[in-house]
Specification:
By secondary structure, the protein is mostly helical. It is built from eight helices and two strands.
């Protein structure tokens, strides 16, 4: 029997990855991923806020009136963001300075508010926590991958460690660490993710015995088209 808690985690990590699939939270995604460390810091801090806010909103879902639903969610999220902001300032000051304004902006991150409205307000505390873990991990993994690619191609480093030096053969592509590079790398990674997803749908769940709509629309008996 499928474990619904693990399925909720898997859903956010891969099936509905907030960056590569849902395309949510693009502002911090493009702004802070100049390095893998920055991506990891933003991802982990967002994950903590996402899990805690999901759990509290799920616990209060029958108490919060529908008329003040969104303001209540923002108050809950802002409370946890403030705590994370203070903790990061106290214990990871250099990372705190690197992320700057984007830590307080977690309050209006559409991933957090979206999961609060679409999931936490309708499910139990444990299921909402698993959803927060999955979405948070998916967000973190995407930011780390994006930051690692940009850092490696644009500066020749990985997590601050020098991998290669500029030479006559190859030198870092500085534009990758700038705003245009963020869009370019995100587009390439999203295209790769979509390609892999289409291949999986084409192959089917039983080694090619079943076909998805991506493979042959004419033989598909569904009404999706």
């Amino acid at each position: 029997m499928k474990n619904k808690h693990l399925d909720a985690i898997y859903n956010g990590l891969l099936r509905e990855n907030p960056i590569f699939v849902l395309m949510l939270g693009m502002c911090p995604t493009l702004a802070v991923t100049t390095s893998a460390i920055n991506g990891a810091g933003m991802g982990i801090s967002t994950t903590v806020v996402l899990i805690l806010s999901n759990m509290l909103i799920a616990a209060l879902r029958k108490i919060i009136p529908d008329g003040v639903r969104m303001p209540a969610y923002i108050v809950v999220v802002a409370t946890f963001v403030t705590l994370v902001d203070f903790i990061m300032e106290a214990f990871t000051y250099s990372l705190y300075q690197s992320l700057g304004l984007y830590i307080p902006l977690i309050v209006v991150n559409c991933i957090i508010l979206g999961r609060a409205e679409a999931y936490a307000s309708k499910n139990t505390v444990t299921m909402s926590a698993c959803d927060g873990i999955g979405m948070g991990l998916g967000f973190t993994v995407a930011l780390v991958i994006l930051g690692l690619v940009r850092e490696f191609l644009g500066a020749g480093t990985a997590f601050g460690i020098t991998i290669y030096e500029a030479s006559a053969v190859f030198e870092p592509i500085s534009i990758i660490t700038k705003a245009p590079g963020a869009f370019l790398v995100l587009a390439m990674l999203s295209a790769l993710q979509n390609k892999l997803k289409m291949k999986s749908a084409t192959n089917g769940v039983n080694g090619g015995e079943e076909k998805g709509c991506a493979s042959d629309c004419e033989s598909c008996g569904g009404e999706c088209h």
